[in-house]
Amino acid sequence: MLAYLQERHEEWLGLYEARRAAGDGSGRAGVAAVFDAYADHANAAYVHGFRGCGLLNAAAELPSGAPGREQVRRHKEEVQQLRRHRVALRAQGPAVALSAAAVAVFPLAFYSSMRLSGVAVGTVVTIGSAPPAAALVAALVDRAVDGTPLSRRWAVGTALGLLGVTALAFSHAGPAGGGPVGAGAAAVDGWGHVASIGLGLLGGATYALDSWGAVRVIRTGIPTRAAMGAVFGLGGVLLMPVLVLTGSGILATRVNLAVVTHLAVVPMFLGYVLLGRGLASVGASTATTLSLAEPGAVVVIAVLALLLAGLVTTTAPGRGAVAG
Questions:
Q1: pLDDT tens digit string along 41-74?
Q2: What SS3 state is found at 317?
């Protein structure tokens, strides 16, 4: 019986999506799609003829507390949420669009920074600058919308955080020509290293911006899955031209395809699903602060990779030397 009710529910959802896709995209067409789907459901040719809504029949005939009645209740709630969440997302359109743009810019800036200065430096700058950037975004919005003044302690703390991350990044410059030292670093001059720092700061700012926007949308009552799906779905669409123009190398080898698949599934999809769950409970600045564990993990992974490659040999406890 439960399988039958689930089948009827999925059948109705399919009819609703078909009606919604055939509409003009307006709110009125979306509401009409709900009623049209119920009419299509009633007019569908069943094997034994239409005998009323199977879900309502089950709700009327089953005793209180039966699993079937609970499944019918979930169906009705999902139908109500279809419109409620869609209207709420449209009301948060500016925040969704801004966050989606930040999602599209973030990987371009982040990975470009790592390519120029190495994984460790690029991650330290990008992730390290995200918490003060998130605090800055939240404070400016609070000041503009709610009139909340910025405290002197907040300003000093944010400035020190940004200066510390920048100083740490520049401390990794190589002795000859300012070239960076780090796993995966490209051979660049001093200006290339400056560009890497700038890209890292841009990545941190966009990471903070998409986190702030997601929090703003989620706090309106929209479920995490709907909010994150809208933000990252639109961000993915914005990145499609980049994929078309520069993505030919992805399919060149199996290794390239495997690496890109890993990046898409683990750090992007799974990572941001978990981020969305966290943002439902804490603010953007708190979530980005907790993400500071990432640079430490990256440094450890980079050292282990060098050890495995034979580029680093241990000379004493707590010390290492680069194999020449």
A1: 777 756 556 666 777 777 778 787 788 888 888 8
A2: coil
Return the biggest CA–CA distance within the chain: 83
User: Which residues have CB under 8 Å from 49's CB, separation 6+?
Assistant: none
Both ends of the chain: CA-CA distance in Å?
Answer: 71
Which tokens sit at 60? 């009327």
Any idea of the CA torsion for 258, 263, 268, 273, to the nearest 10 degrees? 60
Q: How many CB atoms lie within 10 A of CB 90?
A: 12
Please report the sign of the dihedral spanned by the C-alpha atoms of residue 276, residue 279, residue 285, residue 291.
negative
Cα–Cα distance measured from residue 171 to residue 280, given in angstroms and rounded to the nearest whole number: 36
Q: 63, exposed or middle or buried, with CB in 10 Å at 0-12, 13-18, 19+?
A: exposed
**Cβ burial, residue 44 (10 Å; 0-12/13-18/19+):** exposed
Cβ within 8 Å of residue 234, ≥6 positions away:
96, 97, 100, 103
Distance separating alpha carbons of residues 132 and 284, to the nearest angstrom: 10
Give exposure, 280-319, as e/b (b: 16+ Cβ within 10 Å).
beebbbbbbbebeebbeebbeebeeebeeeeebeeeeeee
Query: What CA–CA distance (Å, rounded) separates 311 from 297?
Result: 19
Which neighbouring-strand residues pair with 316?
A: 319
Write phi, then psi, for 315 (nearest 5 degrees).
Answer: -105, -25
pLDDT in tens, 249-261: 887 788 888 888 8
| Predicted confidence (pLDDT) per residue in 92-138, tens digit | 888 899 999 999 999 899 989 888 887 777 777 887 787 777 777 77
Question: pLDDT by residue (tens digit) across 260-297?
Answer: 888 888 877 787 778 777 777 776 667 666 766 666 67
